[in-house]
Amino acid sequence: MRLMRKISALALVAVFVLAFFVACNGEKKNAENKEPKAPAYTEGLVFVADSEGCFVSGYTGDTADVVIPDEYGGYKVVRIDGSAFAGKNHITSVTLGDNVKKVGAAAFAGCENLKTVDLGASLEELGSAAFFGCSALEEVTLSAGVKTIGIDCFAGCEGLEKIIYSGNQSLWSHVRLGANNEFIEEKLSLSDGGNFVKIIAQGECNANITWRVGNDGVLIVTGEGHIPDYTFDKIPWREYNQQILGIVVEDGIDVIGKNAFLGCINARTASIAESVRLIDNAAFSRCSSLEEIVLPSRLRRLGDDVFLGCEGLKVVAIPDSVTAMGSGVFMDCTALESVKLSSAITEVGRWSFANCPSLKEIDLSGVTVVGSNAFFRCEGLNKVIFSGATAEIGDNAFLGCPRFTKVGTIPATAVIGTGNNGLR
Q1: In whole angstroms, how far apart are CA 50 and each of 43, 77, 347?
Q2: How far is 80 from 75, CA to CA, in rounded Å?
Q3: Who's near 38: CB < 8 A, 6+ residues apart?
Q4: Measured between alpha carbons, how far is 169 from 218 in angstroms, rounded to an integer?
Q5: Rounded to 5 degrees, what angle do the CA atoms 390, 394, 399 make?
Q6: Which of 50, 175, 182, 242 is the most buried (most CB within 10 A)?
Q7: Reduced to 3 states, what is the DSSP secondary structure of residue 16?
Q8: Are the C-beta atoms of residues 147 and 119 closer than 8 Å to each other?
């Protein structure tokens, strides 16, 4: 019995010993197979602490791919000192930590084999000649927070093909570019895949409203309040009228002043923000290429001659919020085929649709007054709808409309001017 107990005890010990060796051997194999953990930053960086955190003052390492950490020794790494990496030709890529706000003057100057640079999430300033002479540099990533790019920052970077900017068009417009950096915008692309538009002209309408024209031909007016009234010679973007291909009035504008976009002869589209309540006299007059416009749903009034001479305009829907429209609003819109009037409009002004030969039909069922010459020479007009609400039709309102047919009734009490044969 004792012998059996000894044998059992020895067997148990053997099992434990075997398990121990197996475990140790397994750990040894795992340790042998495990890849060494990459350092959080590149060895050889020289750090110096100061009142702001710490900065990189130099580099003594031989690693080609340099990684600058977010922190070192409990300090945030906030900048790269001037000339810190200058002439380090073995470097091929640089990634900055997300606390770096400044890259000093000539920090990477003469790094002839440097190809890619990621400047982190917090960078605000690139010093003068920061990447001067980095002839192999192909791609740079800039954060949305960058505010200043110094003189000659990328001068001599003949291989630079792309600068990826993580901000938007509006933020970029506030970046201060030092001399000899004009080519940057030709290389710039937005990180969301959108195309960057280079600003070719910009200015102010007043203290609250600014404007800009991009190399895509789009005029953008932004801010709050009224776009002022202008005479033609004082329109701030008049010099670029022939280059303007589209017009955008952004949210916050409530009035488009007189003559604002007069003579933008190549503008094909116009986008008007919902905040606009009034489009004043001749605002889009003689925009002869204008093909499409969507009027805001809270618009209240259209002034005189707003779309006069917009020869490309084909379809217009005037929202029911509009209670008044002036005279000559769509005069000489020769391609205009279809118009939906606001249900709140009770008066169609003088010459409103004069010389619109492509207009085929008009519903005047809610209109009480049709001004003189309102549909003069609308030669294609073949159907006019009345509802019995008509009180007055001015002289020659339908003169030169040989094809039109009246639908509905005009009260016997209505005053009908001369030159309107066939309306009774």
Answers
A1: 21, 10, 75
A2: 14
A3: none
A4: 13
A5: 110
A6: 175
A7: helix
A8: no
Q: Identify the bridge partners of residue 117 per DSSP, sorted by sequence position.
A: 94, 140
Residues 156 and 214 in one domain: no
* 50 and 153 together in one domain: yes
What is 271-323 written as a DSSP string? EE-TT--EE-TTTTTT-TT--EEE--TT--EE-TTTTTT-TT--EEE--TT--
382 close to 404: Cβ distance less than 8 angstroms: yes
Q: How many domains does the chain have?
A: 2
pTM recorded for the entire structure: 0.70
Distance of CA 50 to the CA centre of its chain: 40
41 has a pLDDT exceeding 90? no
Smallest Cα–Cα separation from 178: which of 126, 243, 141?
126
Distances (CA, A) of 23 to 18, 27, 332: 9, 6, 93
Joined tokens for residue 36? 């060494």
* Region 366-384 average pLDDT: 96
Give CA–CA dist 297/256, Å, rounded: 15
Sorting pLDDT into bands at 50, 70 and 90, what band is 400? very high
Q: Which amino acid is at 186?
A: E
Q: Please write the tens of the pLDDT for every residue from 245-265.
A: 999 999 999 999 999 999 999
Q: Are 122 and 223 in a shared domain?
A: no
Token pair recorded at residue 35: 């890849």
pLDDT at residue 22 in the model: 33
What are the angstrom distances between the C-alpha of 99 and each of 22, 57, 76, 349, 392?
47, 16, 6, 64, 74
- Is there a single domain that holds both residue 274 and residue 162? no
129 and 168 share a domain? Answer: yes
Element (H, E) at 164: strand 162-165
Would you tell me how many other CB atoms lie within 10 Å of the CB of residue 229?
Answer: 16
15 backbone dihedrals φ, ψ, rounded to 5°:
-60, -45
Tokens of 225: 């309040």
d(CA 162, CA 140): 7
- Assess whether 210 and 302 both reside in one domain: yes
Same domain, 252 and 303: yes
Domain boundary among 141, 159, 190: 190
The answer to whether residues 215 and 181 belong to one domain is no
Classified as helix, coil or strand, 404 is: coil
Report whether pLDDT(384) > 60.
yes
Which structural domain range is residue 170 located in? 45-190
- In single-letter form, the type of residue at position 97 comes to G
Whether residue 141 lies inside any domain: the answer is: yes
The span from the CA of 215 to the CA of 186, in Å, is 11
**Distance (Å, whole) CA 176 – CA 388:** 65
